[in-house]
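Could someone model calcium ion with this protein?
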Amino acid sequence: MRILAIEDEERLLGILSRSLKAEGFSVDGAGTAQEGLEQIKLSHYDLVILDLQLPDGSGTSLLRQIRQQQRKMPVLVLTARGDIESKVENFEAGADDYLTKPFALAELTIRVQALLRRGPLIQENVLKVDNLELNRLTRQVRRGGKRIELSPKEYSLLEYLFLHTGRTLSRSMIVERIWDQSFEGLTNIVDVYIGHLRHKVDEGFDTKLIRTVRGLGYSLDPHSKS
Ligand code: CA
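Reply:
Sure, complex below.
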């Protein structure tokens, strides 16, 4: 299990890392919000420990950025502020737990273990990429606030792309997930359905969100150019 601790107080970061490593976790540290964000982009972490007062900005806005990028690992917030407004604000920004400084290392360890037992959280029901929105409860899709009607297969395909935003999904992965094994070899059905989705989701918008990754497959990508 890999943990990233974003904390600018070096002494505290050192103590934190040592005690979590002693519990068998591998721990990376970051001293600024910028450094933390970069490490999250580069590596996979199972959990993030986040201090709220960082030299280059607030941990809360970093938390919002992490969640906007669809990163769903649990985040445990550390702060000197224990007031209810601050707690509510951070839970709304996507925090999973909260620990007020000063805290006992034993409590930190227990909370970290409890969060990791829950596994990766996919609690958001409304997924967003750029101005495209997918509601997993109502199965409704909107772009720029306007409702888009999709067939059940088109919806499943789009949801699958959403759940792996920014990653390339091969045609065979898509076929296996959305259709079934009997479609093996008929991967051009994917191209047909991607065509339908593009027509409904991207047509008329400057930013094309469904991207063809040549020779590999497709991805839902807010920075798409194709
Ligand atoms: Ca701090």
